[in-house]
Amino acid sequence: MKLCRFTEGNVTRIGKVVADQVIDLSRVPGVGASMRELLTDLTALRQSIHEAQGPAYPLERVRLAAPIADPQKYLAIGMNYQAHAKEAAAAGFPVPTSQLWFNKQVSCINGPYDLIELPRVSDKLDYEAELAFVIGRRCRHVSVKDARSVVAGYLVSNDVSVRDWQARSPTFTLGKSFDTHGPIGPWITTDDEIVDPHALLMRLTVNGEERQRSSTGDMIYNIFDQIAYLSTVMTLEPGDLIATGTPSGVGVASNRFLKVGDVVRVEIEHLGAIENRVQAEA
């Protein structure tokens, strides 16, 4: 299934995407208005959601919102593709010897086609195409072998980064958490639809020019390693977002930062695409 949040008639509801339509799920008992709560009960609701037939709206007539607006955590791993780690080192970011994690504050979350802001305080706005996944059940101390069982689904993300602010703090958090700098979507593709999350083509373009292209199989630490590592430290909750790292080709490596008017598109095989235009912060 492809689960989304969509706005139609000034009301935002939960739906499922089927071909070129969005099926409204708000009338399905138990679905409610929160994607995080839906994911908690997804196993019990799966059959009802699968059978839901309407109301239906053409995708082109609705506005897709961030698939999950209220996660408790948005965690991201740094330098998790070897070629990116090398270019990051050349730009002054030390290569980690273990998994390097930071928070993107959840207030940065943005819709799949919404505007992203060039901050007043920086001209070092950068992009990072990333596969993200969402946790489906509360868990702690998950083994690598069992890690896939806690994944609800996958989505496309752009870990928008303000590089000079990122460099000011060893945790990266400030430079990763400006408002609007967490576009995600366009929907959550549930785990059962993806044969292998480590065999997906990912690419990013700026104004149609390809800047990043890689397979998710090039990760240093794969998704299941990441879950095992994180769940050693903290309880993971339904709806928690985890971004799995970006490949080489980021702007900081070539001093090609985003400017007002640029359009950034991230596509991941089988998951869809998000596209965001840069505007100046008001």
Explain this structure.
By secondary structure, the chain is α+β, with helices and mostly antiparallel strands. It folds into 2 domains: 2-65, no CATH class; 74-280, Fumarylacetoacetate hydrolase, domain 2 (Alpha-Beta Complex), CATH 3.90.850.10. 17% of the residues lie in helices and 35% in strands. It has helices at residues 35-40, 42-51, 82-90, 163-167, 173-176, 223-233, 251-254, and strands at residues 2-8, 11-18, 21-24, 56-58, 63-65, 74-78, 100-103, 109-110, 116-118, 125-126, 129-135, 151-158, 161-162, 182-190, 201-206, 209-215, 241-243, 263-268, 272-280. Strands 1, 2, 3, 4, 5, 6, 7, 8, 11, 12, 14 and 17 form a 12-stranded mixed β-sheet that branches. The longest helix is centred in the last third of the chain and has 11 residues, at 223-233. The radius of gyration is 18 Å and the shape is globular. The mean pLDDT is 96.
